[in-house]
Design brief:
It is built from 15 helices and 22 strands. It is an alpha+beta fold. About 4% of the residues have low confidence.
Amino acid sequence: MSHTRRDLLRSAGWSLGLAGVGALLGGCAPSTSATPRPVLQSTPSTPRRGGQFRAVLTGGGAAESLDPFGGGAPSDFIRNDVIYDSLFSLVDGRAAPALALTAEPASDGRSFVLRLREGVRWHDGSPFTAADVAYSLRYMTSPERPYPNELQLYVDTGGVKVVDDRTVRVPARQPVGDPALMLASFPGKIIKDGARSFSAADAVGTGPYQVEAFEAGRQTRLRRFDGHWGGAPNADTLVLSSLTDPQAKVNAVLTGQADYAVDIPFSIARAGTGSAELEIRQAGEGNRVGFGFILNATRPPFDDPRARRAVRLAVDRKALVDTVLLGYGEPGNDLFGAGSEYFSDREPPARDVDQARRLLREAGAEGAQVTIRSSEYEAGYNASTQLFAEQLREVGLNVRPDIVGMQNFFDVKALAEANGIAFSIGAIPLMVIYGRLAAYPSLALPAPRLRSAFAKAFGSTDAAQRKRSWTEVQDVMAEEGNCVVWGLADTLSVARKNVAGVETRGLAKYPYLGKAGLA
C-alpha cells in the first residue's frame, strides 16, 4: 500500500539514462552569449494523412514492456499512451474526458460514479464496456503487480460495481472531491476484461495505434487504428526507437533517421542544429519542470523552520538558472507544480544573505554540517548541487555534496540520513505532488496545518473550498516549507520543421504522439 520509487520518478519526469551527458558545456561557468530561443512545440500546422512518423525516445533497454503497468522508462510511457487509453487525460493541468465522460462524486466524497463513452472499440473489434473498467482497476492495483497503481491508496477496487455497460460505481478509501482529476493524475491504462499477456500479438488496446512489431530497448512499429473513438490518427505508422544516450537521440534527427527527439539536454540545445530543416522546440511555460532541493525536516538543522527559511533566502536563483539551465527557464518560487491547476504563482524570494545568516544564528545552526544527496538522474542535478553548496557556504553552512550512482540514489535509508536531496517535479496536479512527498518521511513536511489543508483540498467536492485549501497548502510551504525550487526548466526537443501534432498530456517529457505526423 506504499508509493513506489517508480511513481516519484514519473512525477519528476526523470529521464533515466541521461547520466554523463556533459550536462554543462565548459563546466559550471554561466554562458556569456545569448541563449538561442526555441520555438513553441504547439505549431499551428496540421499533419497530413499518411506516411510514417519516426520518433526517438529515452529507452529502458530489455526492461521495456508493452504491459501498461510494467515498464518505467520514458519510452514505455510514450508508447503505451497511444496503444491504450485512460479514463481521463491530463490537459493543461486539468482532467479531460477520454474513455470516461464524467466522474460524479457522492456528496461526502466517499464514492463516485463513472459514465463511460459509447461506441468505443478494442483493436480486435470487440466493444469496450464497464466490465473492462472494473477489471482494469482491480488488475492495476493488485499487490501482485511489480508497481501497483497508486489508486490503491484512494480507491477500494475490491468494491467496484458494474451498474450497466456504461456505468461503474467506485467506492473511495478516503474522501475524493475531484475523482476525474485524481484518475487523470494517477493514470491507469484500461485493458480488456481478462487480459494478462502483453506480447506484441496480445497487446490489445483502444488507443489510436496498434502493435505491429516490438523489440524491447530497440524499436516499436505501430500501425494506425482507424476505428479509434477520437478519430483516426494522421500517420499510417509510428516508428519509435529507444536510445539511452541523448547525443545519439539528437544525431538520429540530424542524420535523417528520425523526425523528432524529445527531452534533450540544455547544452545540446544551445549548440543548435546547424540545419535549416530542423529546429529546437520547447513545450511552453506551463509545461516547465521545477528544479530544486528537498530539505529533510526530520533532521537537524532543517527540523527548525528558521534554518529552512535561511536556505531559501541564501539561494541565488538566477545564477543557478543561468549556469545549470543555460538560460532555458526562469527562477522558481519554492513551490512545485507550476502550470498545474491551483498553483500559487507568487514571486520568487529575493536573495538576502544577511537575513539568512541571522536566521541560522537564531536556530543555532551556524557552521552546521549538511549533506545534500544527488545523482545525474536529470541532466544538471550534480552541477546544481555543487553550486547550491557554494551558495550555502556563503551564509555559514558547511555543505558536502554527496554524489552517488543512479541505482543507489533513491535508497530510502540513505535519504533518511541525508539533510537534503536534489529533486525535480513537472507540471502535475498538486494532489500528486503533496501526496507522494508525504509518503516519504525524509521528503515530507511534518506540519499539522499542512496535513489538514491537504486533506480538505483532496476531499472537498466544492471547487471553491478546494481552491482555498490548495492556497493554504502552498501558504504553509512558502512560510515554513522544506522545498527549495530554484528554477523552472524548459522541456526541449529537436524536430524537423514539418513535424506537427505533438501534444502534451501530463508531463511534456512524455509527449502524446497519437495525433503526430508530418505537415
